[in-house]
Amino acid sequence: MQLDNAQTIHELTRCSDQYEHALAQNNVDALDALFWQGPQTVRYGVGENLYGAAEIAAFRRNRAGGSPPRTVLRRTITPLGTEAGVVSLEFRRDGSTRTGRQMQTWINTPNGWKILAAHVSIMAEQPETERPTL
Question: What mean pLDDT is predicted for residues 51-65?
């Protein structure tokens, strides 16, 4: 398996940029189009676990105002050959000091690259190693 395929990195960079633009604009149709439209698709959010493209789409349509604005701090793209890849991203929501994390598994389909699995989380105020034990 080739973990540094330049073409896959280029394509996933473009897809990740499209995702960030659609997220910032709360373009739910564009966001839906970037996800695999099947029951296998999973999105774990900051406050929800969503199974299947229909649940993900319903969540987006019911979230007032869309995702809070954010700045991307760091992005790593790891191709898994030419058929799949992982986009790992750190971000900070506007007005917050906490770091958010997002991981997306993308698959290359006949209809282009699609997100099959996604996970979004916000880091704790301090690492677990710095918290007092109970």
Answer: 94
Domain boundaries along the sequence of the chain:
6-122
| 79 — pLDDT class (breaks 50, 70, 90) | very high
pLDDT at 124: 82
For residue 69, the Cα-to-chain-centroid distance in whole angstroms is 14
Is 100 within 8 Å of 122 (Cβ atoms)? yes
* Cα 93 → chain centroid: 14
Cα gap 107→78, rounded to integer Å: 12
- Give the Cα separation of 44 and 3 in Å (integer): 25
Identify the CATH class of 6-122.
alpha beta
Of 44, 61, 27, 63, nearest to 19 by C-alpha is: 27
Residue 53, C-beta contacts closer than 8 angstroms, at least 6 positions apart: 32, 35, 36, 37, 38, 39, 41
